[in-house]
Amino acid sequence: MEVATFERLLAPEGQQVLHEADAVYGSVDDLTLGTRLRRAGHPADLVAAATSQVALRRRAATKLGPEASALYVTPDALEQATRRTVASHRAERLRASGARSLVDLGCGIGADLVAFARAGLAVHGVERDPLRAAMARANLAALALDGTVTVGDVTAVDVAPYDVAFVDPARRDGRGRTFDPEAFSPPWSFVVGLLADRGVAKVLPGIAHDLVPEGVEAEWVSDRGDLVEACLWGRAYAGPARRATVLDAHGTATLTDTDAPADVAVRPPGGWLYEPDDAVIRAGLVTAVAALTGGWLVDPHIAYVSSEEHVATPYARALRVIEELPYREKQLRAALRDRGVGTLTVKKRGVSVVPEVLVKRLRLTGPTAATVILTRVQGEGRAYLVEPVA
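and the corresponding structure tokens:
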């Protein structure tokens, strides 16, 4: 979409086309919808823009929440946009820190900018793409939030007047997704410069620990069980070196490296196994789950914790150990058939097994559903029949 077309979409006629498209979207196919709108006298470019926006808004609802129905997005910008729950968590943390003003360097369509403004920060966005900048401006206005957005080179912005300089580097170049930090936009060296003081950066959850500068806090965030990002907190806002934050329907829970003992016992599983949340694993805080559950590790290199008690925790999923089964495939098949298992879920860590392939090879036909964990215990492959607990 061209900026001029988007500006027409914001005008009364464009809003009317949006309204008409939204009213019937999904009840007819896209071709029929477009034909109907054009026959009503609406220009073809506005029809195309409106129907595209309505479709994107439907997709955006999962990530941006109910207010997505009032927002403007592009496919690429939606892919990089932060989930509403995660953006709100970050914004509230900054508000609680005492920050009052923020510049969003590369604000895209404004998903984070909206969260910062809603938290009460005075916000200014800078975006090099004129269409995304126009959309960010329109999205603030659509939600009646204060803030400004300009088009420009983020590396040339004077960040001194702001309490926070937030950046979410684009991870695509002319050939597609890139994993070279210096190929990010802005490049990693620029991000590191911001983090030396009042910078905050959203990065990929797979970021290597050795890329995190000294004195900077790395926070891995999961939302409803999905590991979605890491956030690097510059020295002005950093707490402990590593943090895992879990967002779910019950609220926010967080662990840090101060909760993780250096030495934890290693021994075979007891009555319960725990699968730590992916944010906990990426943050290197599995031993914190062991401490919380009064447990131990089943192997020094495997992210399973065990204990003799069931301890409900947001940081891990609990599984009751029913019994140990044979690890070898032939004997495992016989054991499962003896128990009438026909529907099998296989979880594995630290062993070279493809669960889907194994399930097919076992050829189970019984009436019972079961879950089996295949893992390494003190260097040896083991199999356990378990019962997941909500």
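(Above: one complete record from the training split.) The first helix runs from residue 3 to 10.
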